[in-house]
User: Fold these one by one.
Assistant:
Number 1:
Amino acid sequence: MDLIRKAALLQKLDCGDDPAAWYESHYGKQPDYAELLQMVAKTSAERGQVLRSYFEPTEEEREQGRKVPTTAHRAIAEMVAGGYIRVIISTNFDRLLEQALAEAGVVPTVISSADAILGAMPLAHSLCTVIKVHGDYLDTRLKNTQAEIGLYDEATNRLLDQVLDQYGLIVCGWSAEWDVALRTAIERCPNRRFTTYWSAYRPVAGAAKALCNLRIAQIIEGQDADTFFRELAEKVGSLAEIDAPNPLSKQMAVAMVKKFLAEHRDRIRLRELMWTEARRVQLKLSEEQFSFRTPFRTAGDAAARMPAYEAAVDSLLAMLIAGVYHGGKSHRLIWIQCLERLAWHSENLDGDQQWARFGLYPVFLLFYGCGVAAVAAGRYSTLIRLLTSGRSMMHGTEKSLWFRAGDPDSFSLYEGARKAMDANPRVPAFKISHHIQDLLRPAFAEYLSSEGEYLKAFERFEYLAALIFADCYEKEHPSYGSVWVPIGRFAERYKILFPQVQSEIQRLGERWPLLRGGAFDGSLERLLSLKKKLDDWASRVAVQQGFW
């Protein structure tokens, strides 16, 4: 359209608000890009200067995302970097593809003239070769007019014959009508070693249809270039993941969680990654060493299983910590579903009920990892969902998963197992809490800058989780008049932590994060009542344990 305006201006004519309609009316035919460019600039060098403004963005255009690589360019570059695409033939003479490749860390061999062919690295030895059959806009030899693109030199034809003979083709956004020399090269290729895929937004017709018939091409219609190449890159990536060796190392699994969190389009891949690891752990927990059928005799039996449980969930724990710490609201359901899946192990297997209760220890441990991560990152809405939305179904009764994993019967087994592992049964007090704190410390080294920050996040999580538990407990036992919670080292800090949270609640009122997120039925009065009951009980236990 801009070239029509320029051509009209040179003839001192006014093309109005609809340049295309004016051109068709004035010349009796549809606008032709090559003819228009020849009208505006007579030589190849002059045409390059005219085109330059169309390809080089101003600072403002760059900020607006104009004249920069598109989703399609970047998806192609991603597949090149992965080794799936080796040769690209382009009729364009901009440098968007080269820019996208550079962003992906790929330095391609670029051939834009016959001279470049002579000195180019052989195709088999180049990570990526970009063949710009019509030249580069900064080279005065670029081809624009019908005469220029109707016939290629001998070196270019030989190179095209080699590519078309030895490689499969993915064609996108090409009508095949005007590029006679390129069309001819495809027509004369004698072999059909590899499939041709032809993607077009509208139904394929004319010269393109004839080429599709000649090459027995698979036609893909109705997608623009961005959609087509993005989906192709994602499918290739998914197939690669299926073929990748499993299980992933813990470090690699955490790295993949972070990578998938960075892009919203990778949310499905993130869910599959987490789901696969949760399934692996679930199968591990079903092995004979975790059987519920053997009779539960002493806490020592449970103590023997505790390290094996921790080893089984080690990678999943690290993945959940990374996910909760870096993830947003849209990812919360993924973490909750992982916890629910592991609880299934204890909910649905027959056997000794003591073992079934102790079988929730992996879920209890994962709650701590997720909860400390949520507090450390200030993601209180995620914390509330984790502690309230997860559900557990045991013996036909549905309850909060956090309430089930930390109930008095299960918690006493965790505490008893840890005591059985220690030489001194009294030091430290709140053994399972101290044990989990030591267990999680290395995982948080990359997220928190000091030991003090970690302890603060750990104790705050325990206390907030205890408040949520107290809410469930009171609703379960409304006539008791008191509460019970899984008590931990947060009680040791009752003189500092309890008044600190009280001050926050008084200052923020109904804007306090847990209240704002819907906990305690959204009632400030209920929160204050539960807090007083919890504080009274926990401080008494702390004093009994020697914390004055």
Number 2:
Amino acid sequence: MKTRVPVFIIITIFICGSFGASAQVDNKLVGKIICGYQAWFNCYGDGSPVERWAHWSGGKYRSNDGFPAPGHLSFEVYPDVSGYDETGLFQTGFANFADGTPSKLYSAYKQDIIEKHFEWMKAYGIDGIALQRFLGETRDGVFKRNRDSIAVRVKNAAEKYDRIYYIMYDMSADDVDYFKNDWEHLENDLKITQSSNYATQNGKPVICIWGFGLNTRVNAPENSLTIINWLKDKGYYVIGGVPTNWRTGTSDSYSGYANVYDAFNMISPWSVGRFNNTAGIESFKSSYLVPDLAYCQSKGIDYQPVLFSGFSWSNWHAGSENKKNEIPRNKGAFFWQQFYNIKSLNIPSAYIAMFDEYDEGTNILKMADSFLAIPANQYFVTSSADGTFISSDFYLRLAGKATKVIKGLEPLTSDAGVPYSSAPIWFRTSVEQGYDAILQKTNDIESSNNVAGYNSSLTPQCLALYGDTPHYGNYSIRFQGSNKASNAYCNFNLFDVDIPVNSDTWLSFWNYPLDENGKCAIVDLLMTDGTRLKNVNATDINGNSMKPAAGRGKINEWTETVCNIGKWLNGKTIDKILIAYEGNSNTGNFSGNMDDISIIDRKDTPTGINSIKNIIHNNIALYISNEFLKIDAQNYGKGQLLTINIYNIQGVLLMREYMLSGSIHNVSIQSLRKGIYVLSIEDKKEIILNQKISK
């Protein structure tokens, strides 16, 4: 397997064939934005020739050994896998997610996974992909068969969803004959170019070669030129994925490659990692984009600049702190500024590196949106890592917007104008630093009356605290103050949002009162028209009033609140998320914590973790929802191995898991259909709980 480095050169080759463009498919390259597509993720058991974990981690051949787990992984961003069919997902060694969902990863070998990616490309308006083919990898017959299979699957998916594609080799020029044989294999045996969806330019099929001239590869300009000319003689339009400094032959580029670069039909210089902030992007524009474009125009060469969303490499470096979120995405502004510069120079094409590069955190494909959507025992970059909630699909939407702008279908603006969040998950946070939406300001009081600080200090407080009895993770929101009169209230600003409410919109949060008055608080919502959730006589899923003064929860205990806010706020737009305290007749201090706030659209009725609570003998508590079963055995001794069995009503064992007494364990029951089941928990072969449960 090839060792990845943070800089790459990719050359794309287009082949001229006898086929013509379909009446339904515009397969011309210039004028489009293309995404690099790795499709190199394998899981043991996926049926692929690889027969191991690959790229998620380094697994052993024909074995589940080396599966992804803490300390053994090779990727930086956890994908959002909620939209995939279960048949394409495989269990890892990471902890479950916050809601008990098992931590699984997808295999790109699966046809339905690739088709889902192309379905999303079409849905978000992305033109197509350049399928990466690492020439060195194909020297291993197992990996060659796998890449061949992926190429055919990509062809089929592109045709199904009307996207374009072409092959992009990552290689050096040290083996001319091997490359020729491999390419003719794709042409003649796999017939990869024989599709109306295969990209063309000037009537010629496209191919890209990435790596010629890069000073970490073989220095062989004669061989490089031989390959380019061979392809052009066969009728291909050849793209060169070249070093950043190709034009000057310095730094990352060998000197003496001018004839090689000039021979390409299109130049696509690598830019990933070449800048990391606003100033760097602007400097890159003046030092590279402008002179590179001028040079290409003078030589009659097309120009395809590279865009990237961000970069991170911590998990490749043993969790190095300074490599976490190393080049921040800056809520999409980093990507959009690059695109703005490209479009403002009237450059008609661009290349996004990459569609699915979870390894180094440059992906635009759906990603975990928060700490609640990743395994709790391993660091990963999330889409909300810069402190504002960003939906998992935000970068797909951003790329779709860029595609419309580059085609002239929408105007170029300095701000992309793409909403941060989208349905169905509009917002969620566990206020974890570096993962989640965090408080915009400490002690931000929107309005108050007859409230002072805690113990009569000057200012009521609302802030995120580390280790302060959080519900999940390490942080929770502490609010506190002092009630000076019976009509006291205090509204703390938490987050500015822009969330449309429909009839299926739900709010949920957890509260932890620290005193009696601390019960008199809720997570409140302020609409753009001035309406507040606390004032519309709303009730939660258990029929309890959402008025803060009604009180909720027990002192020093976490309680979940779930409310279908769409019943009362349908058609309105949420402007702010707040904590609202309203005093009852008791004056004095109030304090408590809030955690794990979410606003989600869903058709079904969530039961909520805390809405069904069955306290069973032997001090074991069950919390049941449609998604998972939470078993609380904290009061059943400590350190004893418990066996958890779930049977259908006929007594057939469906699931078995293990836990230690003295702890809490979540069992995902998403795979179970609605019905009646039997839960049995055993301690040393003795059944200590036997309970019917329903889903």
